[in-house]
Amino acid sequence: MAESPVDIDALDIAALKALILDLLEKGVARDAEIAALREENRRLKGLNGPPNIKPSGMDKKARSRAKAGRSANKRRRGKKKGSLKIDEKRVVTADAPQGSRFKGYEDYLIQDLVCRPHTVLLRRERWLMPDGSYRVAPLPAGTQGHFGSELRRFILAHYHGLQTSVERLVTLLADVGVAISKRQIMRLLNDSQENFVAENNAVLHAGLETAPWISVDDTGARHQHRNGVTTQIGNDAFAWFATSFSKSRLNFLSLLRAGHKDYVLNEAAFSYMAKLNLSGVVIALLAGAREQHFADEAGWLAELRRLGITDMKVNPDPVRVASEGALRGALSHHGLLADTVLLSDDAGQFNIGNHALCWVHAERLIHKLDTFTDHHRREKERIQTRLWWLYADLKEYRKMPTRLRAKQLARRFDALFTSKTGFITLDRLLSRLHTKRDDLLVVRDRPHVPLKTNGSENDIRAMVTRRKLSGGTKSETGKQARDTFIGFIKTCRKLGISYWDYLGDRLNVPGATPVPDLPGLVKQRCLEMA
């Protein structure tokens, strides 16, 4: 029996909104069901569906030309000649016949590249001092070994920036006329990089101190012939990498200290321990410890042994939880991650503090479900359609957030992830995702937080390419240099700075373009993101 029509005139505004929302949900579900039935109809008839014919290249070019013609009055290509630095001015004479009148010059720019070895013999003054010792004039700034700063910049730019192998660098430089070996190139890549490492940690510190959000990801790595993991931390202003042998939360918290090595017991530390259900007895022991600030891991573990915590065999492990808490306390002590949202793909080690989840990874769980019946396939497609519809509306909400739209989106989220489809595996997955409601809907209160971790995945792809090209690293300095310089490449690109100019300024290349302090630029950009 058909339902009696609803008396719309008798409904208030709230009831009308609820009715409209219900009708929209039913419309989406009906469209998904119709599409599934059509596909099933084609399958039963033995058809493969309508032909998927892509437009030809000519069609694409024609459309692009038409589009360019329509927007010709709005956008014009900018002139690049004005930004070029003139290194040489040369007058070219013309063979003019007698009686001609000189009318000035017609300028014509030619860009070229000077690439040749430049060998300098330094005759350093050597003085015999009154005390019998010798004093020799110092080497020029930027000189490392018997190689100048410009060659160092060339090697660092090609190896890290262009993902060139050491063997190809040796060949290229030999062809140009530079006498250098593979071992010497490795020294230029890895040795004496302390200033770069310090600035890299300062970049991370600036980001974690001021960023309204950061996203994280990790990928496999090889170091010293062992399997490890490279962790990425960053946002639209910076990128930072570190390689280790652990994917634990303890390791991740230690990386977030941005170069600091200390452990701190404070309110943030004890709050973290209580949240992870550490025994109240253990928390009381730590609160009554003689010291609350420990310079390094050795001092911290010695205090745990003194208090007898290392001998406790209970669950959860008191040493692990207490160490995580002390690291969280160190972050609070240094003013890091105070109110920063951490966006991740739901890996357990990243779930600390204010946490947000990637919607693309959440949908991927549904996408990977295997279906064995027509009913399962239809329900899966219907849920995916509703999810992407909700995702699109969340993207629009980020542009124009309102309290009313936030409540509507929350109701739609609950309706979607509490649905009962009859597909048991899908229903269980939806129920599990519904428990992560707060992490998936962080955007309601913080519209500036992205809905996906694509930025982190794009950043970390450089590490994957490096791994495929060169395998792994052998020395600690090599691993640290690789992580540091790839981080600088990504950071410079996000800040609109030339990586070549950055290297030139930091290596004291004569005449190099000055580049400001990167941590300061990162801090400014992060404040603008809020």
Cross-sheet strand order for the largest sheet: 5-4-3-8-9
The number of strands is 9
Radius of gyration: 31 Å
For the biggest sheet, the summary is: 5 strands, mixed
Q: How widely separated are the two ends?
A: 55 Å
Q: Secondary-structure element order, as H and E?
A: HHEEHHHHEEEHEHHEHHEEHHHHHHHHH
Strand content: 5-15%
Concise description?
The chain has 20 helices and 9 strands.
Q: How would you characterize this protein structure?
A:
By secondary structure, the protein is of the alpha/beta class. Among the domains are: 202-350, no CATH class; 359-444. The chain has helices at residues 13-44, 57-70, 149-161, 166-176, 182-190, 194-210, 249-255, 267-275, 280-287, 297-306, 318-333, 359-367, 374-399, 403-417, 424-434, 437-440, 454-470, 476-495, 499-506, 518-529, and strands spanning 126-128, 134-136, 213-223, 226-234, 239-244, 263-264, 293-294, 341-344, 354-357. β1 and β2 form a beta hairpin. It is globular and about 100 Å long.
Q: Keyphrases for this structure?
A:
single chain, 530 residues, alpha/beta, 9 strands, 51% helix
What is the topology?
Blueprint: H1 13-44, H2 57-70, E1 126-128, E2 134-136, H3 149-161, H4 166-176, H5 182-190, H6 194-210, E3 213-223, E4 226-234, E5 239-244, H7 249-255, E6 263-264, H8 267-275, H9 280-287, E7 293-294, H10 297-306, H11 318-333, E8 341-344, E9 354-357, H12 359-367, H13 374-399, H14 403-417, H15 424-434, H16 437-440, H17 454-470, H18 476-495, H19 499-506, H20 518-529
Parallel strand pairs: 3-8, 8-9
Antiparallel strand pairs: 1-2, 3-4, 4-5, 6-7
Helix pairs in contact: 1-13, 3-19, 6-20, 7-11, 8-11, 12-13, 13-14, 14-15
